[in-house]
Specification:
Length: 171
């Protein structure tokens, strides 16, 4: 479900319980991160309207993951995942795989039918995320960004997958 004021605490709970990312990748606590994500304006793109979707994924009533997506960025045919985190207690249970290979492509096809490609960038030292993306048949592109995480240089590598490929029956 989409994050709003009522779901902000649920989103923050997931972010608070993603220790690997916060201790290994950015080396900072996620205090207020859900609020900053919710309030962040979508980027502007000439000739394209960008939609921001900040979603809490629940299993029954428990928040298990959050995903922050910019639909229409960098162009109207692309949905870029700005953030995707799974609660520590639910990692290695197939939630990310289910989201990346089925739920997200179905959501995009239904709500944003012009989107053809899903793009996601992850830091090159986030081995679990890299493995998951490769297992979900996302292809590494040549795109990368040099970032600064509290004075520590990190590199974000971009992966893509066509929505139609994700929705095609597996043989």
């Amino acid at each position: 479900e989409f994050v709003d004021g009522a779901n902000l605490d649920l989103a923050q709970d997931v972010l608070n319980h993603n220790g690997y990312y916060h201790t290994s990748i950015v080396q900072t606590q996620p205090t207020g991160l859900a609020s900053r994500c919710l309030q962040a304006p979508p980027p502007t793109v000439s000739g394209s309207r960008v939609f921001k979707q900040f979603i809490v994924i629940r299993q029954e009533t428990l928040p298990v993951a959050v995903i922050d997506i910019f639909v229409g960025f960098p162009n109207y045919k692309t949905a870029s995942i700005a953030m995707f985190m799974v609660h520590d207690g639910y990692q290695r249970k197939g939630i990310a795989r289910q989201m990346l290979t089925h739920a997200l492509p179905c959501f995009l096809k239904e709500c944003h039918p012009a989107v053809e490609t899903i793009a996601i960038s992850v830091t090159d030292n986030n081995i679990p995320a890299l493995r998951c993306l490769l297992e979900c048949q996302y292809e590494r592109t040549n795109a990368f960004s040099k970032l600064d995480a509290n004075g520590k240089p990190i590199v974000a590598v971009t992966f893509k997958r066509r929505v139609a490929d994700a929705l095609a029956p597996q043989v």
